[in-house]
Amino acid sequence: MTTVLLVHTVPLWRASLASLLGAGQGIDVTTADRGVIRSALAGIEPGPGPNVLLTDLDCPDALDVLEEVRSLAEPHGRGCPLAVLTRSDRPRGLRRAYEAGARGYIDKYRPVDDLSGVMHKLADGGRHIDESLAFSLLQVADMPLSPRELGVLALAEGGETVSGIAQRLHLTQGTVRNYLAAAIRKSGARNRVDAIRRAKEAGWI
Q1: Which end of the chain is more exposed for a tag (fewer CB within 10 A), N or C?
Q2: How confident is the model at residue 45 (pLDDT cuts 50, 70, 90)?
Q3: Residue (of 145, 143, 151) closest to 171 by Cα position
Q4: Which pTM was predicted?
């Protein structure tokens, strides 16, 4: 029996996904909202294989969920294979999932008949990447910008000033300028506008 912890912030979607997963052979599904992943994992009795944590990158607060999952990789955290439901046109979410150590990348437009097989594969220590996501994931893995640099650049692309970005991210203006300078340097751009253009063309923002 493979236990899947489904984390989703929308109750109706969470219930629907849980019902779909639970219909698979040898799958036991538990659910949780963000902020309680560690305690939810602690409440799952160890089975014959590791549990799988599944989340949807399109759900609200998905990036916060990934950040919480990353914290579980700390020395005192309980590791758990992470799988994400996503689409190929979500490079930022794919990047964050990659950095969080995701081992399963599932296209939301794929057939659902072998979804339970994917969960068993991950629980047994394997990896899974849907072919439709492979190219996007390869591009993401090569992205030179850090999540913070990317976030600052995305806010700049949206028209925010340095002071506005600093206020939104609770940073000093000097720190924001440093992140922007790093984004310009790493993307090989001439200036901020060129860095934004290159990031948009690459699908990073």
Answers
A1: N
A2: low
A3: 151
A4: 0.69
